[in-house]
């Protein structure tokens, strides 16, 4: 049971991170005028760093 709870929590964290990654790329494209690939690479670089 604890393993199942841990797996569900891990899936939730991963989903949240991917949603934030895509959202950051969309904002970068709209507000900063970046291209698709440039925005995705920038989003990956900034989201991968711990704050």
Head-to-tail CA distance between termini = 32 Å
Q: Number of DSSP strands?
A: 0
Low-confidence stretches: none
Determine the fraction of residues in helical runs and give it as a percent range: over 70%
H/E series: HH
How is the main sheet built? none
Number of helices: 2
Structural class comes to mainly alpha
Instruction: Give the percentage of residues in beta strands.
Output: under 5%
What is the 3D form? Answer: elongated
User: How many structural domains does the protein architecture include?
Assistant: 1
Mean pLDDT: 89
State Rg: 14 Å
Characterise this structure:
The protein has 51 residues and is mostly helical. It has one domain (2-48). It is built from 2 helices and no strands. It has helices spanning 2-32, 36-48. It is elongated. The N and C termini lie far apart (32 Å).
What's the structural blueprint in terms of helices and strands?
Elements: H1 2-32, H2 36-48
Helix pairs in contact: 1-2
């Amino acid at each position: 049971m604890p393993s199942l709870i841990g797996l569900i929590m891990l899936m939730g964290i991963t989903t949240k991170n991917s949603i934030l990654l895509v959202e950051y790329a969309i904002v970068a494209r709209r507000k900063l005028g970046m291209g698709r690939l440039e925005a995705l690479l920038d989003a990956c670089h900034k989201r991968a760093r711990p704050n």
